[in-house]
Write a structure and sequence with these properties.
By secondary structure, the chain is mostly helical. Helix content is about 65%, strand content about 0%. The protein has helices at about 5-15, 40-50, 50-55, 75-95, 95-105, 115-125, 130-145, 155-160, 170-195, 205-210, 215-230, 240-260, 260-265, 270-285, 290-300, 305-315, 315-330. The model has no long low-confidence stretch (mean pLDDT about 95).
Length: about 325
């Protein structure tokens, strides 16, 4: 018996009856020989962790564009916080931690430079539309490994695609990540907003502070405990009515006071125009795209609009700024 088979049996003996067992995965789009050491979801986690798109997350905006200071979140640190929250919940509920971690680490691989400003710009510029969750799936299915894809399991791809609030993953592990993502960004965006003096703790409505806690740490702890308590021994991942409503109210408060605050988001219009200009430029000059992307157009008949989105959305903030300067600024201005 291989180490992988021993681990699969251990999952069957220990995990919750509602957990997704590695041995029961619906499998990969292209069948391949199993690893003798790692179950399928652990293998998916490793493929994501070693991908180029994962490494680029370190230079992509989470919320604050080019903040002054080293302690503000990036898209990578957001991803790691989602993973940590999700694994804490999964461990307590005896869910499959490998599946949770793979989904969490992969959920934002398709995100644009400059956060949601870049996503809005591509969605408006491209007639085919653009959504980062769908792009994340496209990254792992098509774009990674020189357009060969990572060949991940169905459950991981489903969790990545359906991590947004409006959709529902098929596995409980995917639902853990979906809630963990929302909790993580509200928690750390508030922490960053307080650090940036856009908010003060006292600005948070008193009723929310009384319900959830007086600090960001207390609120995060309350959310995670509530999910674990209300999901134990159930075939669902849920929160109590009181805490769920408080999370909704806190999210609304963040939109009104941070996500739409001119002090925090005043530069986003410039970022959107930069991304739109890059999209339009490469759509007119597709011969300048990387060879593997031109190959997708030539051999698979992929529309140029989608391929240009692939290229621009993959850029880090710094690379996008550098490309914009290379294309649009006179050489004498670049010194």
């Amino acid at each position: 018996m291989t180490i992988r088979e021993q681990l699969e049996l251990r999952e069957k003996e220990y995990l919750s009856p509602h957990a997704s067992l590695s041995m029961n995965s619906r499998g990969r789009e292209t069948e391949e020989e199993q690893c003798d050491i790692r179950p399928v979801y652990q293998r998916d986690r490793d493929r994501i962790l070693h991908s180029k798109s994962f490494r680029r997350l370190k230079d992509k905006t989470q919320v604050f564009l080019t903040p002054e200071g080293d302690h503000y979140r990036t898209r990578l640190t957001h991803t790691l916080e989602v993973s940590q929250n999700a694994r804490t919940i999964a461990k307590a509920l005896r869910m499959n931690e490998d599946l949770v971690e793979a989904i969490a680490l992969g959920h934002d691989l398709g995100h644009t430079p400059f956060g949601h400003a870049g996503e809005r710009a591509l969605d408006q510029a491209c007639p085919l539309g653009f959504a980062h969750n769908e792009q994340s799936v496209r990254v792992v299915e098509v774009l990674e490994k020189e357009s060969k894809g990572l060949n991940l399991t169905y459950e991981v791809r489903d969790g990545i695609r359906n991590h947004k609030t409006a959709t529902k993953p098929v596995t409980l592990e995917g639902r853990i990540v979906r809630l963990s993502d929302k909790i993580a960004y509200i928690h750390h965006d508030m922490d960053d907003a307080i650090r940036g003096r856009i908010l003060a703790e006292e600005d948070i409505p008193k009723e929310l502070r009384n319900t959830l806690g007086k600090t960001t740490t207390e609120r995060l702890d309350r959310f995670i405990h509530d999910i674990i308590t209300n999901s134990a021994d159930k075939n669902d991942i849920c929160m109590s009515a009181e805490i769920g409503q408080a999370l909704t109210d806190l999210r609304r408060f963040m939109f009104e006071n941070v996500y739409q605050n001119p002090r925090a988001k005043g530069e986003e219009g410039k970022a959107e125009r930069l991304v739109e200009n890059l999209y339009e430029y490469y759509l007119k000059n597709t011969e300048l795209l990387p060879p593997e992307l031109k190959k997708l157009m030539a051999e698979r008949g992929e529309p140029a609009e989608r391929i240009v989105c692939d290229y621009v959305s993959a850029m880090s903030d710094r690379f996008a700024i550098a490309k914009f300067g290379e294309i649009y600024l006179p050489d004498s201005w670049k010194d």
